[in-house]
Amino acid sequence: MTAFARALDNQMEFFNNEWNCSSPQDSVDLCFHVINLMKEKEEVCEKTCEALYFIIYRLGDSCPDPEKLSGQLVKFYQTLGFACFLRPFQSLFEVVKEIQCDWIWFIKDCSCIFKTATEILSRQDSNDQPKHLQLVMKILQSLLAHLYDDVLDSGDIGRLIALASHGLLSQAEGTFEECHKVLVELCANLDLRLSLLFYGLLNSHGHRIIKDCVDVILAHKNISDIKACGHLLHIMNVQCGYDIATCWNIDKGFLKDILETYPEEIQSDESISDNLMKIINASSKEEAEGLAALINSNIYNA
User: Fold this and answer.
1) Which InterPro entries match (predicted)?
2) Is residue 231 part of a domain?
């Protein structure tokens, strides 16, 4: 109980330096006992899940019954909808990866999480729920990095891709980065065996991703975000071997349609649509990033 109390006081370094709990299972059971007792109190659940995150991380491949633990977290998340229940999944993913068990049950649990997450995040603007969105994207990016084809083959992740694209416009610290990582991972790890699934996602959401990237490039945002969107447009066209300009009729006319909502001085500036086309057709990441930064600089430093 001392270990748990100190964890709730945000002294998480305790779990990295000391380990005097009676047993790993006792520690995990205690966390779930507290959650059951205080499940209507989101703040208590948050602190308990943070403690559980560190317990799982510290246990590593000694973590007792990861499948049961995963199921408990999924059930609480589906019932209560608190984003904090996604936090322990980050360390649980590392455990499952370390013990090299059958991934089928974990992918199934993650699919349940994603279904619940999209329902929750769709009730209002997902960018108004940055912490929740970030945690979902962290799980998705980890899965894509390790089980790319399994994730694409396991079900429809289109709604998650739409959330990731919209998240590029978020002003919350960290949200852009997590959403950008997902979209880059999606494009940068194309498995030719599943090209039809991948192209299906791009055909459904590609125009929206391009528009959101353009909106970021034209926004008064951090220069690193602007360059990152130039990079994303570049890899969508080049690294995937998919000529988006031709296949989706991406031309200056399409880009001008995007610019219609902007002030007249931006709509009438031919160099903006010209440079946006150059980004899509850039020969390198550096060229695409430089062009994105140039467009933004010409708008705000003119």
Assistant:
1) ARM-like
2) yes
Of the ranges 123-127, 150-154, 190-194, 297-301, which is most confident? 123-127
Establish if 122 belongs to a structural domain: no
Q: What is the pLDDT of residue 64?
A: 84
Q: Residue 55: which residues within 8 A CB-CB, separation 6 or more? A: 15, 24, 27, 28, 31
Chain segment 83-92, per-residue pLDDT in tens: 999 999 999 9
Give the domain extent around 257: 206-301
Which residues touch 141 (CB under 8 Å, ≥6 apart)? 178, 181, 182, 185
Q: What is the mean pLDDT of residues 65-75?
A: 94
What DSSP character marks residue 125? -
The torsion angle over the Cα atoms of residues 135, 141, 146 and 150, rounded to 10 degrees, is 100
Number of domains in the chain: 1
The answer to whether residue 295 is domain-embedded is yes
Q: What is the pTM of this model?
A: 0.87
Residue 77 in 3-state DSSP?
A: helix
> CA–CA distance from 208 to each of 42, 87, 147, 154, 171 (Å)?
34, 29, 25, 23, 18
In angstroms, rounded to a whole number, what is the distance separating the alpha carbons of residues 146 and 140?
10
